[in-house]
Design a protein that fits this description.
Blueprint (H helix, E strand, L loop, with lengths): L1 H6 L1 H7 L8 E2 L8 H12 L5 H20 L11 H4 L30 E2 L10 E4 L17 E3 L12 E6 L9 E4 H5 L4 E8 L16 H5 L2 E10 H7 L9 E6 L6 E5 H5 L4 E6 L2 E2 L9 E3 L12 E7 L6 H4 L4 E2 L5 E2 L8 E6 L5 E2 L3 E10 L5 E7 L7 E2 L1 E2 L9 E9 L4 E9 L8 H8 L12 E4 L5 E4 L3
Helix pairs in contact: 3-4
This protein binds ligand MTE and molybdenum atom.
Ligand MTE binds next to strand 4.
Amino acid sequence: MYSAQLHGPDRMQDAFPISTTGRWLKAPEGFIGPASVARVAEEARRGRRDFIRSAFAAALAGGTAAAAHAQSNPVPAAGGDPNILDLPEHSRGLGKPVAADGYGKPSQYEGNVQRRQSPGLTQTAQSSVSFAPLQSLFGIVTPNGLHFERHHQGWWDIDPSKHRLMLNGSDARLLKTPMVFTMDELMRLPSVSRFHFIECGANTGMEWGNVAVPTVQYTHGMLSCCEFTGVQLRTLLELAGADFKRGRFVLAEGADGSSMTRTIPMELVERGEVLVAYGCNGEMLRPENGYPLRLVVPGVQGVSWVKYLRRLEVGDRPYGTKDETLHYVDLMPDGKHRQYTSIQECKSVVTTPSGGQVLLDRGFYNITGLAWSGRGKIKRVDVSVDGGRNWRSARLQAPVMDKCLTRFNLDWVWDGKPAIVQSRAIDDTGYVQPTYRQLRAVRGSRSIYHNNAIQSWLVTESGEVRNVQLS
Ligand SMILES: Nc1nc2c(c(=O)[nH]1)N[C@H]1C(S)=C(S)[C@@H](COP(=O)(O)O)O[C@H]1N2
Ligand SMILES: [Mo]
């Protein structure tokens, strides 16, 4: 630390219990090359059980060395740092002109911060997932270019002048005036902007049986958080004269080839929470995320946030569509499936330190992570560094919003011994995020969806951070 050299060790000791702050290596984000993707796909075809874990382990070992090299530009121990003494070009020359790029991009040095597809997870790239790089993000907002993607039949860039939204009832009495809106008409109506998380119900789904993937990007990256702008669905249904007494459900339908249809309870619509949204983080939605129109259903699993939204139908019973009867159901230990478990329960994860990162020194670290609940606000996040024996409450970063990611931070001095870092979130209903043992006692371990268990990261003596599960 420069401040230690400038002010002397005493000053630092006032601030932190020991005089160094720890450096860490980023997770080797780029470590899954085409070769390991091909290998995983091949082994998946042969039905090998542990294929994903072993392929990741091999790739991770190579990636760590590469990441270490990429990040090394140390201050010379003997002093005389050329990075200070040799005046760089950017301090002498003329910089680039304005508007060199009409739509700005991240620094070339941040090129490894990418959403990534998990090898072996799906058979085709059109019906697949890309995960957001949670380990590289700050605060709570997901940049639009890094928002996770889940498509059932590929994505489209739809011409907004040709896009229509239709409103009808399952019978004529449930909605007086069937209506069709153009995008221009929708965007003239009163709008609201709200921050919410979106999480796929299958997030963390690969970890039900055992540890499967190495980094927080793959364990928790089907998660994003944005400021959405749009019209309250309630407003549209009022305009069209919906019967809110008998019409207790709304069917939402997308315009892509996946026939994505989901039943939305009218309760959520009446509260004014459900939005017909066109804006995301200050600009129009990205095509991958449903441009020009998507449904926003705060607190509810991602599949209900229908993209390329083209039709809404008011009905008097749940529709039982394929994406709520065959998919997005919970396989229980007795072999039965639970349907309509749509709310994303309270959950959290530490993003630093997290899998694939390496702690290079003992000393001070800022443990940081994200917490969220589909039922309301985050009330408290506890953090343990000894596998759940002792807990300390983390600092919650304002603003703490309803059905929105909350960033937490906690000071930690790593003593160089093995540590198991966990976070446990509590929401304002009093619900406490469960351990794997508690969750499996109710749900078994053969589910795919709705895994909100406490995540454990093992920091080994060498500083490497690994995904582990405690029995
Ligand atoms: N039309 C349409 N809407 C859709 C989907 C889809 O494939 N087609 N996928 C759903 C699923 S399963 C999820 S998790 C979210 C993902 O939204 P995102 O791609 O913006 O992250 O969109 C939902 N809405
Ligand atoms: Mo999803």
